[in-house]
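Lab meeting minutes (informal)
Scribe: AK
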Amino acid sequence: MTEEFQIALIFQDGMVLQRDKKISLWGSGPDDEVVTVRIQNRQARAVVQKKKWMVILPPLETSESETLELSCGNRRIVLQNIAVGEVWIAGGQSNMEFFVRYDEEAENILQRDENRNIRFFDYPELAYPGQREERDYSRYGVWRVCNASHLEYFSAVGYHFADRLHRDLGVPVGIVGCNWGGTPACAWMDTDYLADNDGKIWIEEFNNATAGLDRELYLEKYRSDAGNFRNDIFSDKKGEALMFGMSREDQLAFMESPDFSEEINPGPFDKCRPGGLYESMVREVAPYSARGVLWYQGESDDKHPEIYRTVLSSLIRCWRDSWNEDLPFLFVQLAPFKEWLKCYGETYPILREEQEQVAGHVQDVWMASIMDAGEEWDIHPRKKKPVGERLALLAEGKVYGRDILCESPVFTDYTLEPGRLTLSFCHAEGGLSIKGESRHISALELRVHGAGLANFESRVEGDSVVLTHKSLVPENHVEVSFAGTDYCEVNLFNAAGLPARPFSMTAGKRD
């Protein structure tokens, strides 16, 4: 590491700093020198040790334009146009990375007036430390403002979240993107957090797949493939075609073309290896002071869906330790999906149930449901506005303390009477409703003694759902499944326009 005085990449002109919380700034420099930081008439110092320094500033007040001054010996760094407001870390895989240019509303979004109080930083997608020095990554790792020339680089989910939050809170909002498509959760965490639980299977499989591998030869081959360097993402014509959306017919044709290749086991420098992106990306962003984390990921954990609650819970613990704070986590439940290329949604009901468990058992973690916003033949739904806005609604209700209905309806209890099964829900203040032309609740399956019933009636009564059929009696074994398939279209909503979450239940006499 050079002895020149430097500040970490994320600290730049135009950045957003978190208000009302201590601010961590860090970088490198010559040992024993004193680093001084000044902003808003506040000042803090730290001594460089082992070529590294970290300064902790006292809390700052909301502002749209500040100057940050740093000094070390005779070297001075001045950063301009600093906003102080709300900062959120946007992590995950392709549906979080999914740029505004692919969004269903992209044309309208890109025509909007500039808003300098919505800003975005996307950390470069780096598979291993040092990769940034091997190519020109100048398009990424910069703070962007919300205008026509920069917006297409914004995460669509991050943009819709920030737009809603800025309108409702009236303060600058900054989104720090730390995400990469096609990556499992194990890549985003220190492997120490997987070693003592079921998540260790990811480590064991990786070790077995790479045993005896010539690392230098692997790295040479890895570097020779331009596709392993995400330094000019929009120039990837294949990726562009896929993200803008292909029909199922076009997908089938593409899979027969020479351009199609399937993912292989991750090697020692691959983005998907356990702990890899934590080492090369997360550690470069943490502990950038933030209000909380937005997380949209899980599609690439379909290989081991039954342990996702363990892996995601461990990731949350890892990130909270890395930020030295129990940051709120708001995450997105996987959307309905059937098939895309050679990816299949058959394990998604398991993953969604695992996500339900995390939301229900990990403190200060909440989940947004998008069971009405999937696409049957595309793993990347283009409707990202519901995703971002529902995350913002959760943030306002759970993190900012507003008294609003911000969670999807959740099944809580039932009453079984002759001919009638009543399902009760929480988060249903103001009543439930069925959207669309159908008066029947979709995605609802009813079985009696294991046999499916097709002619039962379903309706909404206030904050409950009522099912009627002559076979619904306490003497029978009754099973209900809601949104329990890979793809479905949910039409049951609460007064906040949020779709009911998947559930299953049993009642009556057991077989």
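Next up, CB showed the second protein from the same session:
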Amino acid sequence: MKKTLLLTILVSGLWFLVSSSAYANNLTIDNVEIVSKDKANKTSTIQFDISWENSWRGSRNYDAVWVFVKYKLNSDGKWYHANLKTAGTNPSGFDRGTGTEIDIIVPSDKVGAFIQRSNTGAGTTSVTDVELVWDWDAGGLDADAVIDEIKVFGIEMTYIPSGNFYVGDTQADYGQFEAGITGAVFQITSEGALTLGGGGAGSLGNNNATGMATADDFNDSTSTNLPSTFPKGYDAFYCMKYEISQGQYRDFLNTLTRDQQNKRTFTDVSTDAITNIYVMANNSSMEYRNGIKCPATGNGTTEPITFGCDYNEASTFDESTDGEWIACNYLSWMDGCAYADWAGLRPMTELEFEKVCRGPETSLADECAWGTTDVTQAEGDVQSPGEKYETAMTTGNGLANYDGAGTDILGPLRIGFAAASATNRVS
């Protein structure tokens, strides 16, 4: 992500005018600025432009962008999350801007907003002058607080509607989902509590697997309760459209303290001089297509490091061929959880994952996530490597980048690399 500071002027405390551009898979957020301030209500209005390609809204589901705001305080130089003022659809004081007609959906926790098409359609969504209302009082700020910088981040999402769905695919695999001990698929019909294991009628089994969790093991003879509060996928929810990209993880790292950065990279980045500058692989040169990098010297020991993407190894961060749209590998479970928490999200549950892949369709034995048994391995030379539109040379149904036989790519590809304007779920 390239960021350009357009104007830095303190106006009655608590606001600077800043521009910040954010890229995911052809998602851009730019021309960010604070355009007004309401001392009486302790709020400020944040305005920005947003666009993304291949947007759609159909009769059942649609895509969206999860938008959230971070600000950096002058007093301590740290980044904080900005809460929004009002929950609901197109809340009072928020502005849907000009361009593609959109809705702004602010959930009850008010840590961000979903921006999505209002009407059925497909193509590029492009809107200028969208406005969100920032509740700076909720962050404990007063009217004289000095904000050094403010950024708006976006993550492309997909809306998954409520409804029944099946888990399991009738394959006798260890740990598979099944209805009791029958081997048949299990249907989720509500968000109500479930009995896991035990072999009883109506229970969700796992083909006698053990070791699922120390305190809550379940198998064909031992049961436990999955409470109604656990997300089962029946209710509607949003999920990320793509994997976390290297550019997104870089942006995450660049809003952390030095100590936090050191916990979220493989390389020890606590010293001024750093040898293994490709910090996710803990290596002095790029490995397995992960280009997230820090400077070799001049890092100090207390201030945060500014990371960049350097896939082309030209030592200039965030060039057009530096791979910021490549999926981010080397992430641990806790790295993923930390990123989700930073973004105001949570990890997907296993049941939700099956809902996302299968939708309301019945199960197919030995199916892949796109609903068929087709798999085509992406291999050979990468086309336009490191660029915004990089893709595989290979084509075919079930195109996937995995470690199979042949000429492997030996690393992740761009998020969404297999999709084009004419492709469907399988192709």
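CB comment: The first strand starts at residue 22 and ends at 23.
No objections, moving on.
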